[in-house]
Amino acid sequence: MPVSRDQGHDPVITILHSADRPKGLDGPRVRFATDETLAANLPGTEVLLVWDFLSTAVREAWPAADAVRWVHTASAGVDRLTFPALLDSDVVLTNSRGVFDTPIAEYVTGLVIAMAKDLPGTLAAQSRREWRHRESERVGGRTAVVVGSGPIGRATAAMLAAVGMRVELVGRRGGDGVHPSGALPELLPRAEWLVLAAPLTDATRGMLDAATLAALPPGARVINVGRGALVVQDDLADALASGHLGGAALDVFEREPLPADSPLWGLPGVIVSPHMSGDILGWRDELEALFVDNLAHYRAGEPLRNVVDKTLGFVSSTGSA
Fold first, then answer.
1. Domains of the chain, with CATH numbers?
2. CB 304 within 8 A of CB 82
3. How far apart are CA 186 and CA 272, in angstroms?
4. For the chain, which has fewer Cβ within 10 Å, the N-terminal or C-terminal residue?
5. Is 227 a catalytic residue?
6. 21, 59, 275, 297: which is the annotated catalytic residue?
7. CA 143/CA 42 separation, integer angstroms
8. Predicted pLDDT of residue 238
9. Predicted pLDDT at 318
10. Global pTM?
11. For this structure, is 275 an active site residue?
């Protein structure tokens, strides 16, 4: 999306951060804010970088945004920014699509192999100095259904196919080898692995509930690297406790950090990770580089990368989710 600006325009930038903040974005027209100080820093701000993408402070501080024209988030998901006041405004919203695709695909593929080969069981036996021979599962030839046909879902589907899996990719719209979302119910009964990599929207919230889980074949496994609210967490816990599911690998949750009293911590066959599937060494540098490149486009009045369609809740282009 082009931005009407004189070449060389130098906007006031506010960066919302937590304990961690970008290293190379300092300057006389750059403000650094935390959740507590964001509202005080927003007046006069033209560009808002949501570096702390887990923060929900933007919604509360938004009434103080009297000059914001562009909001960029250091994440692929934008659900924490899709509140009515921002959606109904002329403010351009961009995300960090493209940074996490391959790392998350690698993470999912590693989880599939680790679970099929019972790596958790091997490590547990080793910790007990117990020699316990057993047989593991084949990965090649198994069926994986990947929900979400954006860059992360496509990268994941390609990598799972590379290790020999039969992969069915599901997106909002069908075509180009992608099943439309309406086809998911007929795919679930043969989904030995169900991978959630979809954005969180009104259409996807709570998509994995008791009915969806019951449609999966006995012993199926679920991997969620999308958003925690894609899953009705109590229903998932029930399906795991009953033995209907063979396991789950969860990187995102309805509430983060996952409370210590959540049953998911102790259920058999469950791998809990702290929202880290895309966080490889150097990922912050890549996020910063993407923003700096987009900022150069903004200053020159040129089209921005990764403009989010605010009516959909994600970047809408060929191959988007």
1. 13-99+281-315 (3.40.50.720), 101-272 (3.40.50.720)
2. no
3. 29
4. N
5. yes
6. 275
7. 49
8. 98
9. 42
10. 0.94
11. yes
